[in-house]
Amino acid sequence: MTQDKQMSHQEEEHMIESAYQEVLQAYINSNHRKKVEIIERAYRFAREAHKGVRRRSGEPYILHPISVAKIVISEMGLGSTSICAALLHDVVEDTEYTKEDIEAGFGKKIADIVEGLTKISGGIFGDKASVQAENFRKLLLSMSTDVRVVLIKMADRLHNMRTLGSMRPEKQYKIAGETLYVYAPLAHRLGLFKLKNELEDLAFKYEHPQRYKEIMEYVDQSQQHRDKIVEEFVAPVRRKLDEAGFTYEIAARVKSAYSIYNKMEKKHVSLDEIYDIYAVRVVFENEDDALEKIRCWQIYTFFTDGHRTHPDRLRDWLSTPKANGYRALHLTAMGPEGKWIEVQIRSRKMHEIAELGYAAHWKYKTGDHDDDSELDNWMNTIKDILANPEPSAIDFLDTIKLNLYASEIYVFTPKGDLQTLPKGATVLDLAFAIHTQLGTHCIAGKINHRLVPLSYELSSGDQVEIITSETQTPQVEWLQYCHTAKAQSSVRSILRKDRRTLIAHGSRLFADFMAKEGITPTNEIISKILGRFHLQNRDELYEMLARDEILLPVDELHKMNEESKQSLFSKLLRNPFSTKKKEETDSEPRQKINRKEVYVLYPHDKSPNYRIDSCCSPIPGDDVLGFVDDEERVVLHRADCVAATRLKSTYGHRLVATRWEGLSDRFVVTISIDGIDRMGMLEDLTKVLTRELSINIRGLNISAHHDVFHCDLTVQVDSTATVDLICASLKRIDGVKFAKRIS
């Protein structure tokens, strides 16, 4: 070995040891009981196990578990058991060591957590399954026994996201997609808000690099002005806090890049039109829990005395904490220059729970009688879902997600018991939330002495009585009324047991569809369909139809002439993740696509080397990803498309990074325009489009109400740059206030 290599090796050794010492020092400085010896042994064990192995970035692999352990202690505040499990979390998966080896050296608890963090191969979903979905199911199973499993997994995912730049583009899409689809919502549900925000921002950074850069530049440029406004806003409050003897911190904060982007997309506004990005957080020290609420309300009056408050933006999470344990008092007040500023008021304990969620709950646990009831209820719901696993990986993930990201409502039973449900929950959801048998036999609800149907959407504050009947049983249409994971999982489980009902319903669906489209379901057609999905008989086909596991794309049928219906019918039914298939004009097999290379898109070709899915209709300039279907065709989705998010989290191995090359004016988009109506407005709109920009108008729908008009404009364009030019030009017309692409 040369002297240079020796020096490099010595530098690496020093770097590894320094990283570990940072973990150890953070632990020693914490309030945990000092079990340094077992942490030291875990570190030495992991270092030996991963010796000589490197990450894709080229750095020694051991730096990854050390970094995860640092997040666990420094950013989550967990103790020695979690630190050891973090250091050892990849040993069983990536080395020759087994769970038994871990248990012999470090005890059963650490070994169980490590096993819960270990990926698996194969699983209950069969060969069509997403490995990621199966791993996630296993993670939840372990979590229901020891929540530290999922907390360490979150730390692992966070470090992977922080180092995602060393991965290939298609891997970046896959991991970012998984993060947005599953892990960020799970962090939200566990109350890990700081971690959730960072996961979302990092995923956003890799999915939409240009948009992320624009937003961050805007936030940085406006920081000085923003700080001035916030300081002017809080100055009188600081004086009152000082006079009242509070020990406190006031911090200005700004919305995360991802939340700003979401607001822009949902409201169809530009960066300059986002007004409510200002926020202030007051965190005060409090040693007497009995005075915690009183002090929050006292600080509330300090803000309301000198500022006008928004009447609809008071949020009292003190009396009724969120389901993930979040407690705080929120108000929104008018600041300088007419800026609305959100204020969050928290004690130190509330703040730690708000930032660290279940991790802080673990820290604050004092025995059997703690205040984690809502979180424990959610954990019980997860156990119920896992007890009746969905046959489809994507159904499983969707069912879990129903209970992850959701605004909450609070309703009451006739006896006054509080039930927390996601916004949009129905009478049926409440019935299943109380008890499975109550949901099974539910026929209606009663609210304020008024009967309401199963599908009735509940509102916060409703006091609901569930009406039941012994003869009532779940129906297939009940799935449309379920908005909670427990209700949907329970109904599906019962329906699966009642197989005859499913088969009969699927048979009717199939017959109705075939009759509507004028297709005779001959034995030849049935055989092709069964072969396409590897099914044994018609009953299995009808079951899949009843469960919505097969889509029948009507528009494909309308494109076919009478002579080609039978020969092409086997291509009509598709799984939920493939897309519409154009007719093949050749019978030669397609060349296999190299998914490790960037796939170049040529929109100007007579026959483009890709297909566009109608769910999001991307155009050149959009951030897009490619999905390689069963026939080795690249199907394009916008990176933020809902269907794309599901693909990234479940079929990551089929993704390919893409890059546009060239332009074509074959793309059609719709632009929404709003403004003040006046004589000649329509003429000015068309003049700008046709004479100044030479844009081909494909459709125009304009209407006015009093002095305000709205127009949906469909135009033919070649790229997002042209769309931006159109919107900017339209905004210069006198009276036009908004112009934004909506499809």
Helical content band: 40-55%
Termini distance?
61 Å
- Number of contiguous helices: 30
Which structural class should the secondary elements be placed in? alpha+beta
Write a brief caption for the model.
By secondary structure, the chain is an alpha+beta fold. The protein is built from 30 helices and 19 strands.
Please give a structural write-up.
- Mean pLDDT is 79; it is low at 1-7, 120-129, 366-372 and 553-589.
- The strands form five sheets. Strands 1-2-5-4-3 form a five-stranded mixed β-sheet. Strands 11-15-13-14-12 form a five-stranded mixed β-sheet. The chain has a four-stranded antiparallel β-sheet with strand order 17-18-16-19, with helices on one face.
- Helix 8 crosses helix 9 and helix 8 packs across helix 18 (373-387).
- The chain has 743 residues and is an alpha+beta fold.
- The chain starts with a helix and ends with a strand.
- It has six domains: 13-165, Hypothetical protein af1432; 215-356, 2-Layer Sandwich (Beta Polymerase, domain 2), CATH 3.30.460; 406-497, Ubiquitin-like (UB roll) (Roll), CATH 3.10.20.30; 499-571, no CATH class; 599-660, no CATH class; 667-741, 2-Layer Sandwich (Alpha-Beta Plaits).
- It contains 30 helices and 19 strands.
